[in-house]
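The protein record now logged underneath.
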Amino acid sequence: MEKRPFIIDCDTGTDDAIAILAALGSDAIRVRALTSVNGNVNENFTSRNNRDLVGYLGADVEVARGAKIPFYPRAGYYDATHGSEGLGDVTLPAAENVPFTKETAPELIRRIAEEEEGRLELLVVGPMTNIAIALSMYPELKEKIRHIWFMGGAALGGNMTPTAEFNIWVDPVAAKLVIASGIPMTMVGLDVTLKAALNREDEQEIRSFGNKGAVLAADILDYMIRRYADGGEDALMHDALAAAAAVCPQCLVCHDYFVDVECQGEYTAGHTMVDRRGRTGKKPNVSVAMELDLPVFKQWLKDCLKQCG
Protein backbone atom coordinates (compact mmCIF):
# COMPACT_ATOMS: atom_id res chain seq x y z
CA MET A 1 0.00 0.00 0.00
CA GLU A 2 1.38 3.39 -0.99
CA LYS A 3 1.80 5.72 1.95
CA ARG A 4 -0.17 8.97 1.99
CA PRO A 5 1.88 12.20 2.08
CA PHE A 6 1.36 14.39 5.15
CA ILE A 7 2.71 17.60 6.62
CA ILE A 8 2.36 17.77 10.41
CA ASP A 9 1.86 21.34 11.61
CA CYS A 10 2.38 21.43 15.36
CA ASP A 11 3.19 23.36 18.54
CA THR A 12 5.28 20.47 19.76
CA GLY A 13 4.51 19.72 23.35
CA THR A 14 4.18 16.32 24.98
CA ASP A 15 1.20 14.84 23.15
CA ASP A 16 2.28 16.48 19.87
CA ALA A 17 5.57 14.61 20.10
CA ILE A 18 3.77 11.29 20.60
CA ALA A 19 1.55 12.08 17.59
CA ILE A 20 4.67 12.68 15.48
CA LEU A 21 6.22 9.41 16.66
CA ALA A 22 3.01 7.53 15.83
CA ALA A 23 2.85 9.09 12.37
CA LEU A 24 6.48 8.20 11.69
CA GLY A 25 5.74 4.61 12.69
CA SER A 26 2.52 4.32 10.71
CA ASP A 27 2.29 2.02 7.71
CA ALA A 28 -0.10 4.48 6.06
CA ILE A 29 1.56 7.87 6.54
CA ARG A 30 4.59 9.35 4.79
CA VAL A 31 5.61 12.42 6.79
CA ARG A 32 7.00 14.91 4.28
CA ALA A 33 7.65 17.71 6.77
CA LEU A 34 7.13 19.10 10.25
CA THR A 35 6.18 22.76 10.55
CA SER A 36 6.32 24.56 13.87
CA VAL A 37 3.92 27.11 15.32
CA ASN A 38 3.59 29.05 18.54
CA GLY A 39 1.15 27.46 20.98
CA ASN A 40 1.88 25.11 23.87
CA VAL A 41 5.26 26.84 24.19
CA ASN A 42 7.12 29.51 22.28
CA GLU A 43 7.93 28.73 18.63
CA ASN A 44 11.65 28.81 19.45
CA PHE A 45 11.03 25.63 21.46
CA THR A 46 8.47 23.97 19.17
CA SER A 47 10.78 24.29 16.16
CA ARG A 48 13.74 22.99 18.14
CA ASN A 49 11.68 20.05 19.41
CA ASN A 50 10.72 19.14 15.84
CA ARG A 51 14.32 19.33 14.67
CA ASP A 52 15.61 17.28 17.60
CA LEU A 53 12.92 14.60 17.12
CA VAL A 54 13.88 14.22 13.47
CA GLY A 55 17.55 14.08 14.35
CA TYR A 56 17.06 11.61 17.19
CA LEU A 57 15.17 9.19 14.96
CA GLY A 58 17.27 9.79 11.84
CA ALA A 59 14.06 10.47 9.90
CA ASP A 60 14.10 11.80 6.35
CA VAL A 61 11.72 14.67 7.09
CA GLU A 62 12.01 18.37 6.31
CA VAL A 63 11.65 20.80 9.22
CA ALA A 64 10.40 24.36 8.73
CA ARG A 65 9.88 27.19 11.17
CA GLY A 66 6.51 28.89 11.34
CA ALA A 67 4.46 31.60 13.02
CA LYS A 68 5.77 33.08 16.25
CA ILE A 69 2.59 34.96 17.19
CA PRO A 70 -1.11 34.40 16.45
CA PHE A 71 -3.39 36.73 14.51
CA TYR A 72 -5.45 37.10 17.68
CA PRO A 73 -3.79 39.16 20.43
CA ARG A 74 -3.27 36.88 23.41
CA ALA A 75 -0.90 37.14 26.35
CA GLY A 76 0.05 34.97 29.28
CA TYR A 77 -1.22 31.60 28.03
CA TYR A 78 1.94 29.50 28.42
CA ASP A 79 1.72 27.27 31.48
CA ALA A 80 3.51 24.27 32.97
CA THR A 81 1.42 21.58 31.23
CA HIS A 82 4.18 20.67 28.76
CA GLY A 83 7.11 21.78 30.89
CA SER A 84 9.07 24.94 30.20
CA GLU A 85 10.27 23.86 26.75
CA GLY A 86 7.53 21.51 25.54
CA LEU A 87 8.69 17.94 26.18
CA GLY A 88 8.07 17.85 29.91
CA ASP A 89 11.32 16.85 31.63
CA VAL A 90 12.62 14.92 28.59
CA THR A 91 15.70 16.36 26.91
CA LEU A 92 16.69 15.23 23.42
CA PRO A 93 20.21 15.53 21.98
CA ALA A 94 20.54 18.75 20.00
CA ALA A 95 20.30 17.81 16.31
CA GLU A 96 22.50 20.59 15.03
CA ASN A 97 23.15 18.59 11.86
CA VAL A 98 19.45 18.85 10.91
CA PRO A 99 18.93 22.18 9.15
CA PHE A 100 15.70 24.13 9.08
CA THR A 101 14.47 24.75 5.56
CA LYS A 102 15.14 28.14 4.05
CA GLU A 103 11.41 28.32 3.40
CA THR A 104 8.95 29.39 6.07
CA ALA A 105 6.19 26.97 6.98
CA PRO A 106 3.62 28.53 4.60
CA GLU A 107 6.15 28.50 1.75
CA LEU A 108 7.03 24.87 2.38
CA ILE A 109 3.34 23.88 2.54
CA ARG A 110 2.81 25.49 -0.85
CA ARG A 111 5.83 23.80 -2.41
CA ILE A 112 5.02 20.31 -1.15
CA ALA A 113 1.35 20.70 -2.09
CA GLU A 114 2.45 21.42 -5.66
CA GLU A 115 4.86 18.48 -5.65
CA GLU A 116 2.16 16.09 -4.43
CA GLU A 117 -0.36 17.26 -7.06
CA GLY A 118 -3.48 17.13 -4.90
CA ARG A 119 -2.47 14.20 -2.69
CA LEU A 120 -1.13 16.20 0.27
CA GLU A 121 -2.92 15.97 3.61
CA LEU A 122 -2.32 18.17 6.65
CA LEU A 123 -2.30 16.99 10.25
CA VAL A 124 -2.78 20.22 12.19
CA VAL A 125 -2.38 19.76 15.94
CA GLY A 126 -1.66 23.29 17.13
CA PRO A 127 -3.12 26.73 16.46
CA MET A 128 -3.90 27.16 12.76
CA THR A 129 -1.80 30.28 12.18
CA ASN A 130 0.56 28.75 9.60
CA ILE A 131 -2.30 27.27 7.59
CA ALA A 132 -4.21 30.54 7.58
CA ILE A 133 -1.12 32.44 6.40
CA ALA A 134 -0.52 29.87 3.64
CA LEU A 135 -4.11 30.08 2.41
CA SER A 136 -4.01 33.88 2.54
CA MET A 137 -0.76 34.05 0.57
CA TYR A 138 -1.61 31.28 -1.87
CA PRO A 139 -5.40 30.97 -2.26
CA GLU A 140 -4.94 28.31 -4.94
CA LEU A 141 -3.72 25.98 -2.16
CA LYS A 142 -7.27 25.09 -1.22
CA GLU A 143 -7.52 23.15 -4.48
CA LYS A 144 -4.27 21.27 -3.80
CA ILE A 145 -4.81 19.99 -0.26
CA ARG A 146 -6.72 16.74 -0.13
CA HIS A 147 -7.80 16.88 3.52
CA ILE A 148 -7.07 18.63 6.82
CA TRP A 149 -7.20 16.57 10.01
CA PHE A 150 -7.10 18.90 12.99
CA MET A 151 -7.09 18.60 16.74
CA GLY A 152 -9.07 21.46 18.14
CA GLY A 153 -12.43 22.73 19.25
CA ALA A 154 -15.36 20.96 20.80
CA ALA A 155 -19.03 20.57 20.09
CA LEU A 156 -19.60 20.94 23.81
CA GLY A 157 -17.47 22.88 26.29
CA GLY A 158 -13.84 23.91 26.39
CA ASN A 159 -10.64 23.66 28.38
CA MET A 160 -9.46 27.29 28.31
CA THR A 161 -12.86 28.88 28.86
CA PRO A 162 -16.25 27.23 29.33
CA THR A 163 -16.71 27.40 25.56
CA ALA A 164 -13.23 27.29 23.96
CA GLU A 165 -10.55 24.65 23.43
CA PHE A 166 -6.87 25.71 23.59
CA ASN A 167 -5.72 25.38 19.95
CA ILE A 168 -8.70 27.34 18.63
CA TRP A 169 -8.66 29.79 21.55
CA VAL A 170 -5.03 30.80 20.90
CA ASP A 171 -5.83 31.91 17.34
CA PRO A 172 -9.57 31.88 16.55
CA VAL A 173 -9.07 34.21 13.58
CA ALA A 174 -6.80 31.68 11.88
CA ALA A 175 -9.16 28.81 12.69
CA LYS A 176 -12.14 30.69 11.27
CA LEU A 177 -10.29 31.34 8.01
CA VAL A 178 -9.12 27.74 7.62
CA ILE A 179 -12.46 26.14 8.51
CA ALA A 180 -14.23 28.41 6.00
CA SER A 181 -11.75 27.52 3.23
CA GLY A 182 -13.79 24.73 1.71
CA ILE A 183 -10.99 22.17 2.10
CA PRO A 184 -12.40 18.81 3.26
CA MET A 185 -11.57 18.47 6.94
CA THR A 186 -12.11 16.44 10.08
CA MET A 187 -12.26 17.97 13.55
CA VAL A 188 -11.00 15.87 16.45
CA GLY A 189 -11.88 17.89 19.51
CA LEU A 190 -12.38 17.60 23.24
CA ASP A 191 -15.58 15.59 22.75
CA VAL A 192 -13.34 12.59 22.07
CA THR A 193 -9.80 13.56 23.09
CA LEU A 194 -10.72 13.95 26.76
CA LYS A 195 -11.48 10.22 26.68
CA ALA A 196 -8.17 9.26 25.05
CA ALA A 197 -6.07 8.78 28.19
CA LEU A 198 -3.19 6.36 28.59
CA ASN A 199 -2.13 4.93 31.94
CA ARG A 200 0.92 3.45 33.64
CA GLU A 201 0.21 -0.02 32.23
CA ASP A 202 0.17 1.44 28.71
CA GLU A 203 3.42 3.30 29.35
CA GLN A 204 5.15 0.13 30.55
CA GLU A 205 3.90 -1.88 27.55
CA ILE A 206 5.12 0.78 25.13
CA ARG A 207 8.50 0.94 26.89
CA SER A 208 8.86 -2.82 26.57
CA PHE A 209 8.96 -2.52 22.76
CA GLY A 210 12.52 -1.27 23.21
CA ASN A 211 12.91 0.73 19.99
CA LYS A 212 13.97 4.39 20.09
CA GLY A 213 10.57 5.87 19.23
CA ALA A 214 8.67 3.73 21.72
CA VAL A 215 11.11 4.40 24.58
CA LEU A 216 10.95 8.13 23.89
CA ALA A 217 7.14 8.01 23.87
CA ALA A 218 7.24 6.08 27.17
CA ASP A 219 9.55 8.69 28.72
CA ILE A 220 7.13 11.45 27.71
CA LEU A 221 4.18 9.41 28.99
CA ASP A 222 5.95 8.92 32.30
CA TYR A 223 6.12 12.71 32.66
CA MET A 224 2.44 13.07 31.73
CA ILE A 225 1.35 10.41 34.23
CA ARG A 226 3.38 12.04 37.01
CA ARG A 227 1.89 15.41 35.99
CA TYR A 228 -1.59 13.98 36.44
CA ALA A 229 -0.71 12.54 39.85
CA ASP A 230 0.38 16.04 40.87
CA GLY A 231 -2.98 17.51 39.88
CA GLY A 232 -2.26 18.41 36.26
CA GLU A 233 -3.72 17.19 32.99
CA ASP A 234 -4.09 13.46 32.42
CA ALA A 235 -1.97 11.62 29.82
CA LEU A 236 -4.41 12.60 27.09
CA MET A 237 -3.52 11.72 23.51
CA HIS A 238 -5.25 14.75 21.96
CA ASP A 239 -2.97 14.97 18.94
CA ALA A 240 -2.29 11.29 18.34
CA LEU A 241 -6.05 10.80 18.13
CA ALA A 242 -6.18 13.32 15.28
CA ALA A 243 -3.54 11.25 13.48
CA ALA A 244 -5.58 8.11 14.13
CA ALA A 245 -8.65 9.76 12.60
CA ALA A 246 -6.82 9.86 9.28
CA VAL A 247 -5.74 6.22 9.09
CA CYS A 248 -7.75 4.30 11.72
CA PRO A 249 -11.29 5.57 11.11
CA GLN A 250 -12.80 2.65 13.01
CA CYS A 251 -11.67 4.19 16.31
CA LEU A 252 -14.02 7.17 15.90
CA VAL A 253 -17.60 7.94 14.99
CA CYS A 254 -17.86 11.20 13.05
CA HIS A 255 -20.83 13.30 11.92
CA ASP A 256 -20.95 16.02 9.28
CA TYR A 257 -21.89 19.42 10.71
CA PHE A 258 -21.60 23.08 9.84
CA VAL A 259 -18.80 24.53 11.98
CA ASP A 260 -17.75 28.15 12.48
CA VAL A 261 -15.52 29.93 14.98
CA GLU A 262 -16.41 32.84 17.23
CA CYS A 263 -13.70 35.52 17.33
CA GLN A 264 -15.19 38.01 19.76
CA GLY A 265 -16.40 38.10 23.31
CA GLU A 266 -14.78 37.73 26.71
CA TYR A 267 -16.33 34.31 27.17
CA THR A 268 -16.90 33.19 23.59
CA ALA A 269 -13.74 34.02 21.58
CA GLY A 270 -12.35 30.69 20.37
CA HIS A 271 -15.67 28.85 20.60
CA THR A 272 -16.31 26.35 17.80
CA MET A 273 -19.97 26.60 16.89
CA VAL A 274 -20.98 23.09 15.84
CA ASP A 275 -24.48 23.13 14.38
CA ARG A 276 -25.59 19.68 15.48
CA ARG A 277 -29.29 20.43 14.97
CA GLY A 278 -29.12 22.24 11.64
CA ARG A 279 -30.36 25.51 13.11
CA THR A 280 -28.23 27.70 10.82
CA GLY A 281 -29.54 26.13 7.64
CA LYS A 282 -25.96 25.99 6.31
CA LYS A 283 -24.45 22.94 4.65
CA PRO A 284 -22.06 20.80 6.70
CA ASN A 285 -18.40 21.72 6.12
CA VAL A 286 -16.58 19.59 8.73
CA SER A 287 -16.65 15.94 9.78
CA VAL A 288 -16.72 16.11 13.59
CA ALA A 289 -15.53 13.24 15.80
CA MET A 290 -18.13 12.58 18.49
CA GLU A 291 -17.47 9.05 19.83
CA LEU A 292 -14.27 7.11 20.59
CA ASP A 293 -13.47 3.40 20.71
CA LEU A 294 -10.58 3.66 23.16
CA PRO A 295 -9.24 0.07 22.91
CA VAL A 296 -9.07 0.30 19.11
CA PHE A 297 -7.23 3.63 19.33
CA LYS A 298 -4.77 2.35 21.93
CA GLN A 299 -3.93 -0.68 19.80
CA TRP A 300 -3.37 1.50 16.73
CA LEU A 301 -1.09 3.82 18.69
CA LYS A 302 0.96 0.98 20.16
CA ASP A 303 1.31 -0.70 16.77
CA CYS A 304 2.68 2.54 15.32
CA LEU A 305 5.08 3.20 18.19
CA LYS A 306 6.40 -0.35 17.97
CA GLN A 307 7.54 0.44 14.44
CA CYS A 308 8.99 3.90 15.11
CA GLY A 309 12.78 3.97 15.10
Q: What stands out?
A: Strands lie at 4-10, 29-36, 62-64, 120-124, 145-151, 185-188, 252-261, 272-275, 286-292. DSSP finds eleven helices and nine strands in the chain. The chain has a mean pLDDT of 97. The longest strand covers residues 252-261.
